[in-house]
Amino acid sequence: MLGRVGLDWGCWMLVETLAALAVAGGNALVSAMVTDGWEGVRERFARLLGRGDPKATGDAAARLEDSRVVLAGRSGTDLERAQAEQEIAWRTRLADLLESHPESEDELRLVVAEAQAQVIGSAVRIDQHVAGFDEAQQGVLGQGVQMNTFGGQREPGTRR
């Protein structure tokens, strides 16, 4: 992992910058794991981690998918805990990549920006309007922040 033992100030700042990039990469990667565009993000990170070697790229893709599976089906604090663990693992791997292959910095920055855009793009506002009358029951599924309003049996915008 990127360290600071025996470094002068200029090198220390470079190491800090690369460490911050590894953190951003781990966060963006794990956040993208729970989006619809995961496959594209996985392939970009796998190519980056594989460094042009088809076997290493395949191994990286499998490891990335294994991480996504760890998150699948979890919710609430269980999901948050699993995401935090995966972020630590991936930021460590990305820091190791930057230490071994400093020339990969620009490519990692690009892949992180694309992953962040994917996560932001998946966080669009969706409005659902459901009406039920008498003793009807509804179930509304979704993710993220939901605001549900329950009231009497009247049309929206009318007063009692």
**What are the segments in which pLDDT stays under 50 over at least 5 consecutive residues?**
9-13
Strand content: under 5%
Query: Can you write the helix and strand succession as a string?
Result: HHHHH
Number of helices: 5
Helix-and-strand structural type: mainly alpha
Helix content bin: 55-70%
Most strands sheet: none
**Overall strand count:** 0
The whole-number mean of residue pLDDT values reads 80
Radius of gyration: 21 Å
Oligomer: single chain
Shape, principal axes of CA atoms: elongated
Question: Distance N terminus to C terminus?
Answer: 65 Å
Explain the overall architecture.
- By secondary structure, the protein is an all-alpha fold.
- It has a domain at 29-116.
- The chain is 61% helix and 0% strand.
- The chain has five helices and no strands.
- It has helices spanning 9-32, 38-50, 54-71, 76-100, 105-121.
- Helix 2 (38-50) packs across helix 3 (54-71) and helix 2 packs antiparallel against helix 5.
- The longest helix has 25 residues, at 76-100.
- The chain is elongated and about 65 Å long.
